[in-house]
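Structure request: Putative membrane protein insertion efficiency factor, Paracoccus aminophilus JCM 7686.
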Amino acid sequence: MSPLAHVLALPVRAYRLVLSPWVGHACRFQPTCSAYALEALDRHGGLYGGWLTARRICRCHPWGGQGYDPVPGTPDHGTPDDSQSEPTTSDKRSKP
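Returned structure:
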């Protein structure tokens, strides 16, 4: 995590420690906004991760969406990983 990401993660961690037990577990999205924020900051750094976090928090309102919303750049979000890559030449079968 970059130094800026560490600074931006402090209020999120404080929220999870102090306020989250009082607010309850009624998040509209999966993962929760605080878990999303920590993952976005860890994966993308302070600037882009902070932007993703702010955008996600702005979507969290009664008329907003709901459901599964992973951090962009994770394998669950459409980024190809090694298991879905093109087969190598040794894996391809030769035509007779």
